[in-house]
Specification:
The chain has 513 residues and is of the alpha/beta class. It has 3 domains: 5-275, Alpha-Beta Barrel (TIM Barrel), CATH 3.20.20.70; 292-368, no CATH class; 382-501, Alpha-isopropylmalate synthase LeuA, regulatory domain (Double Stranded RNA Binding Domain), CATH 3.30.160. It has helices at 24-37, 51-63, 77-87, 103-110, 114-131, 147-159, 176-189, 207-217, 238-247, 264-275, 296-304, 332-341, 348-364, 370-382, 426-438, 482-502, and strands spanning 5-8, 41-45, 68-73, 93-100, 135-140, 164-169, 195-200, 221-224, 324-326, 368-369, 389-397, 405-412, 415-422, 443-451, 460-468, 471-479. The strands form 4 sheets. The chain has an 8-stranded parallel barrel with strand order 1-2-3-4-5-6-7-8, surrounded by 9 helices. The structure holds 3-methyl-2-oxobutanoic acid (KIV) and zinc ion. Residues 13, 168, 170, 199, 201, 230-231 line the site of zinc ion. Residues 13, 98, 138, 140, 168, 170, 199, 201 line the site of 3-methyl-2-oxobutanoic acid (KIV).
Length: 513
């Protein structure tokens, strides 16, 4: 087979990154973009983990077409039944069953013997296969397992109906040559009709290298996540895996993926905005400097012939300069038309509030680019379904000779609330005023500010992480003024905290092995 399937786990393993908590609307937005990107499989979540996870997987299964929709499940029947309940509506559903096979996981986490693990794997896969033709099996911590035992369990999974065998380097312990040998060993040992897959974590910065070594050795599915999101140091970055396979197809035996690479940069930006995880400037493929040449000698060479210093064309990954799309005279029609051309579909209240925000910003910023539009829409979607508080007005004063103060008026459904506060700076004062007005006082655990595009009138894009009595959320705000952007980010986070307080069932619960 010359095709390498791309299995995206941004919404499952990626969502397990500390501080990321996406609601159903945000997950749907990401899933739509992943389908547009052309990934073969979207792992939409872990349905038994929480009611919120279940609802998101179900909503994605009901509305996304073109990609297979997978739900993760342990081997217990309750997990598998729940996973099926969520993915059954998909055009092409998949159940992904896993159980650990390494000595440390079996002893310390599962408290199971080898025989018990074998029985669990057999029963779990069989039950999943009773529901669905497409069943994936993963021996968790595969790279630290005894290869003989691990492949024995994989054989049991295949014999009971698994069609994909995924080898996880769960703790990022593998190195490329050794991981490739493991893939060859699986292919040699496990008989039957199945596809071998890789799932590599990045604890040693080797996730992409290990995944590619797996492909070279015969793996025909790679599990990866946009921007390399995932537990701890993350998973293999999808954009890097895809572009390595595309650019060095000669080396990898002329294999191909189905990914529409021109959508990579936009997907990266959408995921970054909705998760609140920034993309490092020099990140391969999708970083804003990935195609920027600073040294004069490089610039000269690139002007003569881009191939002197570029191995990929920026256009093939959608990195062309964000074009100017709209100005302050643009109407609602042009606004939604531009969004549609960018593949963004929002309707109803979200469209109305995004348009209002666009008009406010267009009054202050002459040219609104594609990247600005994405930021505005992401801020609106980031507010989620229930947009409890909105900013009516925000005034702040500060300087080197006076105490910074801020006054905020917020709409709270049909009424208004206001508060005044002082702080260490105007940003601090604005956030303190919002905390006072809403009663949500949290600890700011992260604060990142970046410009959406270049220029003095660039939109400031602020991402914060807030911990309010153990509820950890991210918030995002954009504005031409960085104090206002920060206040918006804070309010965005407050709205999420209130939503989670109202619906504790949508929060992730700690689940055992
Ligand atoms: O890292 C891992 O082992 C996983 C499995 C559930 C595939 O995420
Ligand atoms: Zn993982």
């Amino acid at each position: 087979m010359n095709e390498v399937r791309i299995f995206d786990t941004t919404l499952r393993d990626g969502e397990q990154s500390p501080g990321i908590s996406l609601d159903v609307a945000e997950k749907l937005e990401i899933a739509e973009q992943l389908a547009r990107l052309g990934v073969d499989i979207i792992e939409a979540g872990f349905p038994i983990a929480s009611q919120g996870d279940f609802e998101a997987v179900e909503a994605i299964a009901k509305s996304i077409t073109g990609s297979t929709i997978a739900g993760l499940s342990r081997t217990g029947f309750a997990d598998i039944d729940r996973a099926w309940e969520a993915v059954q509506h998909a055009e092409r559903p998949r159940i992904h069953v896993f159980i650990a096979t390494s000595p440390i996981h079996m002893k310390k986490k599962l408290r199971m013997t080898e025989d018990e693990v074998k029985e669990e794997a057999a029963a779990g896969v069989k039950r999943a296969r009773g529901y669905c033709e497409d069943v994936e099996f993963s021996p968790e911590d595969g790279s630290r397992s005894d290869p003989d035992f691990m492949t024995e369990v994989c054989q049991i999974a295949v014999d009971n109906g698994a069609t994909t065998i995924n080898i996880p380097d769960t703790v990022g312990f593998g190195v490329p040559e050794e991981f490739a040998e493991l893939i060859v060993f699986v292919l040699d040992r496990v008989r039957g009709d199945y596809v071998v897959s890789t799932h590599c974590h990045n604890d040693l910065g080797l996730a992409v290298a290990n995944s590619l070594a797996g492909v070279k050795a015969g793996a025909r599915q790679v599990e990866c996540a946009i921007n390399g999101l995932g537990e701890r140091a993350g998973n293999a970055a999808l954009e890097e895996v895809v572009m390595a396979i595309t650019t060095r197809s000669d080396y990898f035996g002329h294999v191909e993926t189905n990914v529409r690479t021109e959508e990579l940069s936009r997907t990266s930006r959408i995921v970054s905005r909705l998760t609140g995880y920034p993309v490092q400037y020099n990140k391969a493929v999708v970083g804003r400097n990935a195609f920027a040449h600073e040294a004069g000698i490089h610039q000269h060479g690139v002007l003569e012939d881009p191939e002197t210093y570029e191995i990929m064309d920026a256009n093939t990954v959608g990195q062309e300069a964000a074009q100017i799309v709209l100005g302050k005279h643009s109407g609602r029609h042009a606004f939604s038309d531009s969004l549609a051309k960018m593949g963004i579909r929002i309707q109803g209240d979200a469209l109305n509030s995004a348009f209002t925000r666009f008009k406010e910003l267009a009054d202050r910023k002459v040219q609104i680019t594609e990247a600005d539009l994405e930021a505005i829409v992401a801020e609106e979607l980031g507010a989620g379904y229930v947009h409890r508080y909105d900013i009516v007005s925000l005034d702040f004063h500060g300087g080197t000779s006076s105490t910074p103060t801020a006054k905020v008026v917020l709409s709270d459904e049909s009424t208004k609330v206001d508060a005044e506060a002082s702080g260490n700076g105007m940003i601090d004062a604005a956030m303190a005023a919002i905390a006072e007005a809403t009663g949500v006082k949290g600890r700011l655990t992260d604060f990142v500010v970046a410009a959406v595009t270049g220029g003095g009138d660039a939109l400031g894009d602020v991402v914060i992480q807030l911990d309010a009595d153990g509820i950890k959320v991210s918030g995002r705000g954009v504005s031409t003024d960085v104090v206002e952007a920060s206040a918006r980010a804070y309010l965005n986070a407050v709205n999420k905290v209130l939503r989670l307080r109202e619906r504790p069932d949508t929060r992730e619960v700690e689940i055992g092995p």
